[in-house]
Description:
- The protein is mainly β.
- The protein has strands spanning 3-7, 10-12, 18-25, 31-39, 46-51, 57-59, 67-72, 77-82, 91-101, 104-109, 113-117.
- Strands 2, 4, 5, 6, 9, 10 and 11 form a seven-stranded mixed beta sheet that branches. The chain has a four-stranded antiparallel beta sheet with strand order 1-3-8-7, with no helix packed on it.
- The relative contact order is 0.31.
Amino acid sequence: QVxxxxxxxxxxxxxxxxxxxxxxxGTRLSIDRMYWYRQAPGKERExxxxxxxxxxxxxxxxxxxxFTISRxxxxxxxxxxxxxxxxxxxxxxxxxxxxxxxxAIYNRWxxxxxxxxxx
Length: 119
């Protein structure tokens, strides 16, 4: 069974940085796009970053210029470098992989990792 394992969350002060990682456990997959979402208590889940297999990226307005998504295709791993963090970035962050099965693509979600930005 495909399992995505996230790491790197925690508590950080405003203005600080964190780097999240998300890797596939146990198997090598063919992955199309990779994504990072986040969800704060009482709010809608938000797509914040996307990266294609070729490395093209897209960001939500809320994180553009502060966050950087990257991937290592050989390791089936996606990263999210978060700089200049703000209290409003406090959320549970989820990675999503678009896994290929023949001609179809199925989204697989990580378990989520908590990021708290507070002094």
